[in-house]
Fold:
Amino acid sequence: MGAAFFEGQSEAVSIDTAERFICSTGAIPILFDGDGKALNLGREQRLFTEKQRTAMAARDGGCLMCGRPPAWCEAHHIDHWDEHDGRTDIDSGVLLCRFCHLSIHNNRWRIRRDGGDYLLEKPDRDGTLRHTRLPSRSPALERLLAG
Ligand SMILES: [Zn+2]
Ligand SMILES: [Zn+2]
Structure:
């Protein structure tokens, strides 16, 4: 089991917590594996700007998974930056509250984009990948689509 350390802090945090933190803030902690060897995770991580976050809040209306308000939310990169070209469009980010964000990273679930919709991808008990639609929580967007 690895651990991560943030600059200026002596307490180790779990890799999952560190990955969630990197995803949301772009800060790069130094990661160590069980033998105390530094893991090579010091890659460049693109950041969402505050403007993009605001746009996401207007679009998503809050946590896409549980509906908590934007103030509870962090921007989650749905594309892992080692698999894609690191585009930082608001299309590749969604708002998730701290709890849902952490559980996505802990469980290694993915959020996929399907046209204008987002899908939660997670394995069933038998390992089959299932996709659940994550509707926007935004009343503004709802009115726009209804009108
Ligand atoms: Zn949530
Ligand atoms: Zn994330």
In short: Residues 21 and 79 are 15 Å apart (CA to CA). The chain has two domains: 3-39, 50-146. Residues 15-25 form the longest helix (11 residues). The beta strands are 3-5, 12-13, 30-32, 38-39, 73-77, 93-97, 110-114, 117-123, 129-134.
